[in-house]
Amino acid sequence: MVILCTADLPADLEALVGAPVTRVAAADLPDAIGQADALICLLTHRIDATLLDRAPRLRVVANYAVGFDNVDVAAATARGICVSNTPDVLTEATADLTFALLLAAARRLGEGERLVRSGGWAGWEPGQLLGADVWGRTLGLIGLGRIGQAVARRGRGFGMEILYSAPRSVAAAAALGAVHLPLADLLGRADFVSVHCPLTPATRHLLDRAALARLRPTAIVVNTSRGPIIDEAALAEALAAGRLAGAGLDVFEAEPRVHPDLLRCHRAILAPHLGSATTTARRRMAELCASAVRAVLSGEQPANLVNPEVWPSARARSS
């Protein structure tokens, strides 16, 4: 069996998989994929139909992320290839970072830290870097899946009113005290808007110039989901014009590139995609990838299969 991995993960993959794992650079993947039985890849690596056509032996793509918009799942399914992801294990870590960004943007911590480091801080002043209260304000969540629900729990700890927008109501909403609203209404009411929906054709630039215009000028936007859900140019424009109070972003449209106008926005807190960046979460993600590879190569259905309809044909390939 040939098992490829496109990155050095913070875990002993060979011990977890129980077989040799070959590290391959993403640029070399098209040449190497032809001999692969399994692939562990990052969300930054595009696994499309063209690449899959070069992989006649490939049986599983284990995506080291919850989201799998980087993988052409339909193309994989058509070829009898299983696709897995890493749900649950990074939920709390990402929710923690979401709230860290929300607090940092609300209390202008980025500006404050830069002021101190520059040597420009002259001491305490009554009107210096006044920010926004978080306690008791309204939190609007775009998406109420695992991470959205975890952020809602944190919001409740701050006495916040919780609103959410999703294609349909979510059963867990009642226990969280979360009220379902159309997106336009949520944007008009929320003090803080946090993005937790997957990236799909329907959600690309969901927060565009028109949507951002519905927000109050005191509102703050947080995104720990996928960068292209927000129109970065429109967001930077709104921040620069004072039509938004701030933003906390962990993801960007064209990572690692960040829109230059956002880089100039003092009221934007910018993080380098740290949502799952805890030792525990990243190791558990590796364990889920290894578990999926081990299962498929042993003829067993993995627990975290995102295209379960493929399993009959995938199982037939392994018999």
CATH topology annotation of the largest domain: Rossmann fold
The helix tally amounts to 14
Low-confidence stretches: none
Query: What overall geometry do the principal axes of the alpha carbons give?
Result: elongated
Give the strand tally.
Answer: 12
Which strands sit side by side, in order, in the main sheet? Answer: 8-7-6-9-10-11-12
Per CATH, the class of the largest domain reads Alpha Beta
Q: SSE order, as H and E?
A: EHEHEHEHEHHEHEHEHEHEHEHEHH
Q: Determine Rg (CA atoms, Å).
A: 21 Å
Largest sheet, strands/sense/barrel: 7 strands, parallel
The structure class reads: alpha/beta
* CATH homologous superfamily heading of the largest domain: NAD(P)-binding Rossmann-like Domain
- Count of domains: 2
Mean pLDDT: 97
Helix percentage range: 25-40%
- Strand composition percent: 5-15%
What is the second-level CATH architecture of the largest domain?
3-Layer(aba) Sandwich
- Tell me the span between the first and last alpha carbons: 15 Å
Keywords:
35% helix; Rossmann fold; 319 residues; seven-stranded parallel sheet; five-stranded parallel sheet; elongated; 14 helices; 14% strand; 2 domains; alpha/beta
Descriptive report:
This protein starts with a strand and ends with a helix. Helix 1 (13-17) links the parallel strand 1 and strand 2. Helix 5 crosses helix 7. The protein has two domains: 3-88 and 279-318, Rossmann fold, CATH 3.40.50.720; 91-270, NAD(P)-binding Rossmann-like Domain (Rossmann fold, 3-Layer(aba) Sandwich), CATH 3.40.50. The protein has 14 helices and twelve strands. The protein is elongated. Helices cover 35% and strands 14% of the residues. It has helices at 13-17, 29-32, 49-52, 73-78, 91-106, 109-118, 146-157, 173-176, 183-189, 209-213, 232-240, 260-263, 279-297, 311-318, and strands at 3-5, 22-23, 38-41, 60-63, 82-84, 138-142, 161-165, 178-180, 192-195, 220-223, 246-249, 268-270.
